[in-house]
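#structure-requests
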Amino acid sequence: MTNDPTPAVDRPEPPFAADEAVMLTAWLEFHRATLARKCEGLTADQLRLRSVPPSSLSLLGLVRHLAEVERYWFRTVLLGEDTGPEGLYWTARHPDGDFDLLDTADAEADFATWQAQITAARAACEGLPLDTVGKRPREGREVTLRWILVHLIEEYARHNGHADLLRERVDGVTGE
């Protein structure tokens, strides 16, 4: 556990002027790194600490959820990969398993899975124009890479707000 105000996680600052693809990618990287910062220095038990009942929200749950999100949007929707009928952490029996099934979760393995999904997402996007249409429609509609990037920025930004509150609950640390 650390209360050091200088985070160790490198968080790239998005440019003030750049083309659309660079800007969207930079903001997504910024938000990915923000979540990593919110989690750094905590023990597995601290990462599993829930917000307030009845919510099952925790920092580790957010990491697991965002691994699922990265996998779904980039690998399943954009690339059209068959990633199977269930998720990394959820099943038909436990649709919120990414948040709910944490009591014996391996935090180190879950962080590695999240990073692996981020790496796969980066590879999926490499060299593709923003107008690239995903190979698997969502709710019967085509989805472009541009939409996916904007959605992921929104998803991370929303959950980083949750992460701010969760981290403050764990050890009082606040910040960007």
